[in-house]
Amino acid sequence: MATDLHRAVTVQGLTRSFDGRPVVDGLDLTLRAGQFTALLGHSGCGKSTLLRILAGLDREISGTVLVPRRRAVAFQAPRLMPWKKVWRNVLLGLPGKPGRAVAEKALDEVGLGHRSGAWPKTLSGGEAQRASLARALVRDPDLLLLDEPFGALDALTRLKAQRLVAELWQRRGCTVLLVTHDVDEALLLADRALVMRDGVIAYDTAVDLDRPRSPGDPALAGLRTRLLAELGVTEGEFAESATA
Ligand SMILES: Nc1ncnc2c1ncn2[C@@H]1O[C@H](COP(=O)(O)OP(=O)(O)O)[C@@H](O)[C@H]1O
Ligand SMILES: [Mg+2]
Predict the structure, then answer these.
(1) What is the pLDDT along the chain (244 residues), one digit of tens a residue?
(2) Most C-beta atoms within 10 A of its C-beta, which of 86, 140, 184, 221?
(3) Contact 193, 38 (CB under 8 A)
(4) Containing domain of residue 53, as a range?
(5) Which of 15, 17, 19, 23 best tests ligand 1's pocket when mutated (most atoms within 8 Å of CB)?
(6) Ligand 1, atom 20: closest residue by C-alpha
(7) How far apart are CA 151 and CA 153, in angstroms?
């Protein structure tokens, strides 16, 4: 699927400013259909801003943005409505009146079918994040946008969630853009890694390794060092932040 040359996303000369300050500043980007891309960059460099634009949530832009009509986004915080049961949260905002079975199919896909009738506050952090993922999947997206979806999870839950996203992507074949601050997560999951800096894609590399991958595969050591350098962190600092 990653060899399909069809473009899913085309961005040209994209600019978005806040209070006169450009956060996205003449950015160009194309994503191939079916490709899994990780977007790295310092906190505050504009990753979420770019994702919100691709999701169609922010239209105060200049430049060209071509995206598939069917797209969905999941954020770091699951954003579930506490007064709606899990299955109703999954269907939130969907056109028509889809039935509970539609929600449960998506919940099954993330291993959460048995929690369909639960209240959000009774879910664990990992379960809530999976519910949020189900809410994205129920839209049957051609483009799945993920904004640090594992950032708040503990290490083990995070590993499971990463594996789940890899499975979903392989099964569905949709285009994925994953924002992460974790170089190792990018190398574990993505076909391609981007580093955003000064409002543009400052570094763009293929991640050429067969799957399934294991975290910290030595074949990716060189690329890991390069990405950390692009982010301006040394390996020692990164290890500290990973264990903090
Ligand atoms: N709605 C907004 N109003 C004003 N400034 C914003 C708004 N959204 C984002 N910004 C600013 O844009 C910059 C990039 O933010 P963001 O895209 O959230 O960064 P990242 O996701 O890479 O951490 C930050 O300086 C942030 O303060
Ligand atoms: Mg962000």
Answers:
(1) 444 458 899 999 999 999 999 999 999 999 999 999 999 999 999 999 999 999 999 999 999 999 999 999 999 888 899 999 999 999 998 989 899 999 999 999 999 999 999 999 999 999 999 999 999 999 999 999 999 988 878 888 888 889 999 999 999 999 999 999 899 999 999 999 999 999 999 999 999 999 888 877 898 999 999 999 999 887 767 666 665 5
(2) 86
(3) yes
(4) 1-70+164-244
(5) 23
(6) 44
(7) 6
